[in-house]
Amino acid sequence: MSKTLTPAGTLYRGREGQWSWVAHRITGVVIFFFLLVHVLDTSLVRVSPEAYDAVIASYKNPIMGLGELGLVAAIVFHAFNGLRVIAVDFWKQGPRYHRQMLWGVVGLWAITMIAFSIRHLSHVFGG
Amino acid sequence: MSTETVEKEPASKIELAPGVGGGGEIPTFDITLKVRRYNPEVSDDAHWDEWKLTMYGTDRVLDALHKVKWEHDGSVSFRRSCAHGVCGSDAMRINGRNRLACKTLLKDLDTSKPILVEPIKGLPVEKDLIVDMEPFFQSYREIMPFLISKGHEPSAERLQSAEERERYDDTTKCILCAACTSSCPVFWTDGQYFGPAAIVNAHRFIFDSRDDAGDMRLEILNDKEGVWRCRTTFNCTEACPRGIQVTKAISEVKQAILTRSV
Fold first, then answer.
1. What is the pLDDT of residues B176-223, one digit of tens each?
2. Which residues fall within 8 angstroms of residue B161, CB to CB, at 6 or more apart?
3. Domains in chain B, ordered, with CATH?
4. pTM
5. In Å, how far from its chain's centre is CA B40?
6. Do B121 and A21 make contact, defined as CB atoms within 8 angstroms?
7. Do B73 and A1 touch (CB under 8 A)?
8. What helix, strand, coil percent values describe chain B, rounded to 5?
9. What is the ipTM of this complex?
């Protein structure tokens, strides 16, 4: 018998359901923080339109452009997966096909993101 | 009466290579079993203990734990009773997933890596793999898991059609092992949540045509800590050793709360 000291236990090895829920939570928090900043910068227009223009202009750089890409990725996943969660609760066959629906969500997300990335990145980096 | 010559049994059609024995010879293999140990009388910290064991192809994780307890370290503590997947005593986390130790064959696990055995999550650990099941049974009791009927006692059986029985058949299979409830991320962080097992057992009576307290149970589960805490992670469905469609049962209870007069 040998003794190995590892403080933490292992992570629960859930399957698609658990990890889609984790992703839903993370994207939800990301969107929340975006909305917080978004409400603040938009309300700046009430303070002074010049300040608003200055803040919006400061977003127009490649780092913020990539941030926007990440934000859209989070929103698109959260939206499609949200519809899946509604289907799991309200469609009779939902719990049975939740895994297939998740692949549908991932597929739709990929299609949307490919289309968006082409257009968005050509704006950000194409000038 | 004519005497019949006893015919010899026909030779086996399968050619066995020499050296391969007949029945009874079971292949053996070596495993490394890692058990998460915790003894509050010795230390406040848990640690992993490791044993190398030679096991048979027919052995289960429970057999490996028995071998450790009986031949290596008698202080290893775990619950088990029937050891055949009926009593629901030996739910534990095996390689990160909730399983019954008595229903998990070692040969089905990856024996090239150590097999990790931990107590189920979300319930206070008392020693090694033994957890305090009281919060789990408290939720179970709260949903009133017994038949409640109004009106006259029938003089004969309470009749039910095959279709009515079929309605809740899936949720009658529960053995209260807590594999589902302790696989639920909501239960880990919010111990007040009823948990899948209590909802499954409520489902068993809510959809029983002979029971008259369905509305009462729906009212109990319409609580802040009731069915609405479910985030459909499907960990419970995946963990259930009886194959109960737990998440489906929970969503049926959600629907019932929305559509009935509660």
1. 999 999 999 999 998 899 999 999 999 999 999 999 999 999 999 999
2. B209
3. 28-131 (3.10.20.30), 134-147+165-261 (1.10.1060.10)
4. 0.86
5. 26
6. no
7. yes
8. 35, 15, 50
9. 0.84
